[in-house]
């Protein structure tokens, strides 16, 4: 298993406290809120094809940043285009392009129904004439709540302007025989110059080969392309090469045509950050104008992260290996990987792809990079106050049944409701049915997060949960293999509202040999009626640090077991004890303790502010 999957990069500090490798936003009116005489965004050109086929308006009810978003609606067959004012750029420089978007209508997930949308990236010369394009940003074929599309692009030589154009095309009537009225919202766009940081010296060293299952301390990972998927096929015969980094390479024959030479494994759980990939390759001839090959980096939820296309002139010499870097940001959960392609017009030989982190990013640094991507929650949206019925939301990850959360919530009142959000496991965690809007999320008296990988939550989802607490909501978090400090707690927006802090990376659970009894460490209504004399035991606990203003009500083996805290108007509880361990027949683990379900019910009441129950 790759260390990219194990979160090994958690030991690497960030380059700096900020993201000083990107400049200010160069776009004019990036939030679409400065209007012209018609009440539409200034410095943007809005076009409907045919004329009248699209409607444009500022939406002051649905937006991501500020107080409004641009809405483009195509109710029937036709197209809408939103083009930016040309932005001054420099040829040979890199730029970060990011766009906030939301869509409605469209079609079913996984099926093209004739509605598509994307952002095209074009380059102009000093006369305003287009001289080239870069790969754009595609939106999903199905409707999505607010999301972000982004990528680094390289301005070609002679470019002095960049132009972004968002397009919405509705051909559903022709595609499926039914018209799907569709709408696109745009907000929070940016173009920022990117100055790639230097490659650290340790990343230039040869990565030692490690046998399968072995461990390495290298912060860089090198992937021998001759051992990856697709190697040995039509486009990638495997050759022995004394100049190879290890022993063999893949080399596409001349005139074989376009095709994939190598496909990486699906990596998971790499922490958010700025990464660099080096492709080591060579060509037989370094003359001519046709592309010879390329590498791209893809992701499950954030689309293409980077793409580098190679021309013969990019190689200093024919027949000599050269390393080409390409940078990318990993900012969301889900799998990711890379692919190497040949254009098939001359022999293209690829040796390895080396990947390493340049800077790891906590949530606040991601927000510095993508301002406003956490979204805005209107002040009038407040957490549920009516406890009849007592309403809960359970994000149900591993061992939620061991914690007996459902049993405890069922005891919370004569009338109660509990909505389940299952966590689907695969290459990454997916929260099935997580509320899409703050209004839906806030309509609960208490929210339980059990076995939840916080890194699998988007910045917008984490911001909704944090604001839910600050405005008076109740939140309970439970431990587990992929939870709390072992799942992206440190530096997250959620850590800001919790009564505990956690370590970096994936710290080990604290083992309590033979089990340690739960001890009431402070008088509190939640533990007042629990029978601690029966000596319930905990065998593994998270190693968390309570904040000074918090209250630890249960300890195990001298470590915090249950910690309470307040943030703003809300209350939070953290259950650091895990349901791991093998109790002896004579022992009672806390999750089978007679008082546990009642204690957990009282904990839910307390976090929800229902003090009258005590």
List the keywords.
Jelly Rolls; mainly beta; 6-stranded antiparallel β-sheet; 10-stranded mixed β-sheet; Rossmann fold; 614 residues; disordered N terminus; 34 strands
- The domain count comes to 3
Shape: globular
Q: Count of DSSP E strands?
A: 34
Q: Could you describe the largest sheet, including whether it forms a barrel? A: 10 strands, mixed
Helical coverage, percent range: under 10%
What do we call the CATH topology of the largest domain? Rossmann fold
Strand content: 35-45%
- Discrete helix count: 8
- Overall pLDDT score: 92
CATH homologous superfamily assignment of the largest domain: Class I glutamine amidotransferase (GATase) domain
Instruction: Please state the structural category.
Output: mainly beta
Q: What spatial order of strands do you see in the largest sheet? A: 25-24-23-26-27-34-33-32-29-30
CATH architecture of the largest domain: 3-Layer(aba) Sandwich
CATH class of the largest domain: Alpha Beta
Distance between the termini: 50 Å
Radius of gyration: 27 Å
Flag low-confidence runs: 1-16
Structure overview:
- Helices cover 9% and strands 38% of the residues.
- By secondary structure, the protein is mainly β.
- The protein folds into 3 domains: 22-194, Galactose-binding domain-like (Jelly Rolls, Sandwich); 199-361, Galactose-binding domain-like (Jelly Rolls, Sandwich); 378-613, 3-Layer(aba) Sandwich (Rossmann fold).
- Helix 7 links the parallel strand 26 (446-450) and strand 27.
């Amino acid at each position: 298993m790759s260390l990219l999957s194990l979160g090994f990069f958690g030991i690497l500090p960030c380059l700096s406290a900020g993201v000083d490798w990107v400049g200010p936003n160069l776009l004019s009116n990036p939030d679409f809120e400065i209007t012209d005489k018609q009440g539409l965004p200034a410095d943007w050109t809005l076009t409907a094809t045919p004329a009248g086929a699209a409607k444009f308006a500022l939406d002051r009810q649905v937006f991501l940043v500020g107080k409004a978003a641009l809405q483009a609606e195509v109710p029937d067959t036709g197209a809408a285009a939103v083009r930016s004012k040309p932005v001054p750029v420099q040829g040979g420089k890199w730029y970060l392009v990011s766009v906030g978007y939301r869509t409605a209508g469209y079609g079913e997930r996984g099926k093209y129904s004739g509605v598509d949308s994307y952002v095209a990236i074009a380059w102009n010369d000093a006369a305003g004439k287009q001289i080239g394009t870069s790969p754009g940003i595609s939106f999903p074929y199905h409707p999505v709540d607010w999301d972000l599309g982004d990528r680094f692009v390289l301005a070609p030589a002679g470019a002095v302007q960049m132009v972004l154009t968002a397009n919405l095309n509705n051909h559903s009537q022709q595609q499926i025989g039914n018209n799907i009225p569709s709408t696109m919202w745009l907000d929070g766009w940016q173009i920022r110059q990117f100055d790639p940081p230097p490659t650290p010296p340790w990343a230039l060293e040869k990565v030692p080969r490690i046998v399968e299952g072995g461990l390495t301390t290298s912060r860089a990972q090198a992937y021998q392309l001759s051992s990856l998927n697709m190697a040995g096929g039509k486009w990638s015969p495997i050759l022995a090469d004394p100049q190879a980094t290890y022993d063999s390479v893949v080399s596409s024959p001349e005139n074989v045509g376009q095709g994939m030479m190598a496909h990486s494994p699906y990596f998971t759980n790499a922490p958010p950050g700025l990464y660099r990939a080096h492709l080591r390759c060579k060509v037989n001839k370094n003359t001519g104008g046709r592309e010879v090959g390329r590498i791209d980096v893809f992701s499950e939820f954030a689309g293409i992260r980077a793409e580098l296309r190679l021309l013969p002139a990019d190689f200093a010499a024919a027949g000599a290996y050269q390393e080409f870097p390409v940078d990318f940001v990993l900012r969301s959960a889900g799998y990711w990987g890379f692919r190497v392609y040949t254009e098939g017009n001359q022999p293209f030989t690829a040796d390895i792809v080396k990947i390493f982190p340049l800077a790891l990013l906590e949530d606040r640094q991601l927000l510095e990079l993508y301002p406003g991507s956490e979204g805005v929650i209107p002040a009038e949206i407040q957490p549920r106050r009516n406890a009849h019925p007592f309403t809960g939301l359970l994000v149900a990850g591993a061992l939620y049944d061991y914690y007996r959360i459902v049993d405890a919530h069922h005891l919370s009142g004569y009338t109660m409701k509990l909505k389940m959000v299952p966590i689907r496991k695969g290459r990454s965690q997916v929260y099935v049915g997580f509320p899409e809007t703050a209004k839906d999320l806030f309509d609960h008296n208490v929210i339980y997060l059990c076995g939840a990988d916080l890194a699998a939550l988007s910045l917008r989802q984490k911001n909704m949960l944090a604001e839910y607490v600050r405005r008076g909501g109740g939140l309970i978090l439970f431990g587990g293999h992929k939870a709390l400090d072992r799942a992206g707690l440190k530096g997250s927006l959620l850590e800001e509202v919790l009564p505990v802090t956690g370590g970096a990376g994936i710290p080990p659970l604290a083992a309590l040999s033979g089990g340690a009894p739960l001890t009431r460490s402070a008088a509190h209504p939640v533990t007042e009626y629990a029978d601690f004399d029966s000596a319930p035991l905990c065998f593994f606990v998270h190693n968390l640090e309570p904040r000074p203003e918090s209250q630890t009500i249960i300890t195990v083996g001298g470590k915090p077991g249950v910690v309470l805290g307040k943030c703003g108007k809300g209350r939070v509880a953290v259950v650091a004890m895990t349901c791991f361990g093998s109790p002896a027949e004579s022992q009672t683990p806390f999750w089978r303790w007679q008082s546990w379900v009642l204690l957990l019910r009282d904990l839910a009441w307390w976090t929800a502010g229902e003090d009258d129950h005590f």
